[in-house]
Design goal:
alpha+beta, 7-stranded mixed beta sheet, two-stranded antiparallel sheet, 19 helices, about 25% helix, globular
Amino acid sequence: MRVFFILLIVWLFFSVNFGTAGETCQSCHKDAQSNCNLRCGDCHLSSSADFLPKEKNHPKIIRNPSLEKWWEEKCESCHSEVIQKFRNSLHYSNAGIIDQTRYLWGKQDEPLKSNPEEWKTLRGAGAISNPTTADLADHLLASKCFGCHFDAEMRRASEGRKRVAGCAACHTPLDQQTGKPLHGHRFQKKVGDEVCLTCHSGNYVGGDYYGFFEHDYHREYQTSYGSKPLFGAYQHRLARDVHQQAGMKCMDCHSKSDVTGDNVIRHFEGERPAVRCEDCHGGFGKKASSAKAINKAFIFDSAIAAHQSFHARVSCTACHAQWSYQDYGLHLFLDETDNYEMWANFLWQGDGEVYDLLSTQLAKKQVNRQKAYSTNKLTGERIPGIWYKGWTFRRWETPILGVDRNGKFGIIRPLYQYYVTYVDSLDRVWLDSEKPKRSDGKIGWNWDVYQPHTIGKRGRNCESCHENPKAAGLGIRQSVGDSAAHFITIPHNTILPEARLLNYREKRRLLGKSEQYKIWRTRALKRGGIDELYK
């Protein structure tokens, strides 16, 4: 009986003092005004709570109940359907990133292999035991790539990249200057573009929608006169997507099922349900949406030369993308030493952790410096070594063509052409600009068809593809008779299902001038007013 009364008193203490939105919690947490009917304790108290605040007599609490590990206890009673669908999504699994990296680096034998829960295995990534690219793959994923995962706490990231973990990663946006929640202790149902950009930036789709393209990382390429880095690097400002200029947001095209999942498990980006240009604007054999037509969206005009049947297999973005990301030769350097001077001119590499480490350690005398380290983004634990990166060179002009999984001609880019270097804590060089090998012995490089978010009202000129060796996949060169400026500009291969490079016949057709092409090119020039120029 005595034990019963003790337990009763403890229960009353927690339920009264920490279970209401009143006296005790908000006497300290005055800004923690919620937008729901739950009490503080409904989310933040648990017998399994794992955080003890410094305040005297404060009970253990759950700091972030939106983390995946608390869903079953705290969230599923109300949000079970949303959670189940989200577990199928790529935003949950990051399956494409895991599978592609592991496959290209020789850690797994298939490009689409993982299940939606595979990301949890990266929590065990740590010190390197075997210096091969296959064994380095998970270190790279856990300590660098997975800074962009919903379960990674990135509150201290670079400006533009700050966010918390769990459901709050999207639904509780942070002030990018201070790292504090923009809307206090309130979940936001509507997700703004600034949230999307915390991951979809840094020369990835999303950043291009706003015209961002990273500068080269060396100090001499930084912008002077007051400009400052964004997303961990200095940024060029290129042409923004016409939809962005019109005020459209990411979620205007990307539906809830696209972003947070549905009843189907997705393995890579091309499998997800997505709105198509034709859904609003019409296209070959498809009428424009009446709702969008009323809103004065541009309607597919079959009188335009580029809109003839011979282009029925050409994707809209193949012509209307004003520019595309073309990052050649990704050099990744895992360094466990304290040799920081060689990186003194490369502070801003698109990674806030790299900047923090370099700026902190370079400010110390050599004798006081620590060996390089990074954090496992899923656990927050420190692990030996940090990944520096750079590129052979980067371009944005004149996209390259390939064929997507739907059999349409689209824009391709290198994702990625890896060169891997590894130096351990004893300054021993185990890998030196090594190209990773797949399990079948082939070079672990990949080119991928993608959808640039750089759409313009008018398509690029015909010559950006026709008679253009680069567009045909022959690399950057002046003419077919020249040699490529660099072999890495020649598309290598694709690993995702059904996507491919142009075949010999398609290249020949693109580089030649058929009578049909001459006729329609002349019509296009006349429609553009060329006759007026020569009057």
